[in-house]
Design brief:
- The chain folds into two domains: about 120 residues, 3-Layer(aba) Sandwich (Rossmann fold), CATH 3.40.50.2300; about 90 residues, Arc Repressor Mutant, subunit A.
- It is about 50% helix and about 10% strand.
- It has a five-stranded parallel sheet, with helices on both faces.
- It is α/β, with parallel strands linked by helices.
Length: about 230
């Protein structure tokens, strides 16, 4: 039997940590190894416990979740899943830039919580479609403001490493950019999930992307998807 995925819970509200711990602790394949009430404590606890996954709140005293995520990712101290209400788009985008592997709604049900932890723990970072749209929209706004003329995604220069992708891998990257899961990509392209998983791994490796979150950003910046898609 494989060892359980280890999880660190970070939130300044004890009730939130307790509710998450209650759901996670009953699973045989998941073990809660620590809790923290702010970003500074999270870094200390992560160094001590080396968790596979860190469930990270954003607004906390002393050090917020965005800054804590930067430190954790830089020191390779676990895959960070941001726990958010999505009421601040700047938090969402800043967390991605800090290296977060995914997002979880604070009012998520038990199954969503378990799925998020397992996906992150296996390195399969996921973004929900509504999150993908927000990310792309935020990037589109920033790019338009910076470009002045408002260059569209379709007018962007395609990175030269895109030539390394096969036609099928390019299709997979587009669907990754729209936030689709492996199952959804398989259904769209009429492929087996194992085949899709191989294609996704090849795409990430060839483009030197850490995870699916970076693939979303890359697909937009490469001009493969438009801000209105997702």
């Amino acid at each position: 039997m494989e060892r359980p995925l280890t999880v660190l819970l970070v939130d300044d509200h004890a009730m939130v940590r307790s509710s998450f711990a209650m759901v996670l602790s009953v699973e045989d394949d998941i073990e809660v190894v620590g809790e923290a009430a702010d970003g500074l404590e999270a870094i200390d606890r992560a160094r001590a416990t080396r968790p596979d996954v860190v469930l990270m709140d954003v607004q906390m005293p002393r050090m917020d979740g965005i800054e804590a995520t930067r430190h954790l990712v830089a020191d390779d101290l676990g895959h960070v899943v941001i726990v958010t209400t999505f009421d601040r788009d700047d938090y969402l985008f800043d967390a991605l830039q800090a290296g977060a592997s995914g997002f979880l709604l604070k009012n998520a049900g038990p199954e969503q919580l378990l799925d998020a932890v397992r996906a992150a723990g296996r390195g399969h970072a996921l973004l929900a479609p509504e999150v993908t749209r927000r990310v792309i929209g935020k990037m589109a706004g920033g790019a338009d403001a910076g470009a002045g003329a408002g260059a569209s995604a379709a007018e962007r220069t395609e990175p030269k490493e895109m030539a390394l992708l096969t036609a099928r891998e390019r299709e997979v990257l587009v669907l990754l950019g729209r936030g689709l899961s492996n199952g959804e990509i398989a259904a769209t392209l009429v492929l087996g999930e194992a085949t899709v998983k191989t294609h996704v791994s090849n795409v990430l490796a060839k483009l030197h992307l850490r995870d699916r979150v970076q693939a979303v950003i890359y697909a937009y910046e490469a001009g493969l998807i438009l801000p209105t898609e997702g």
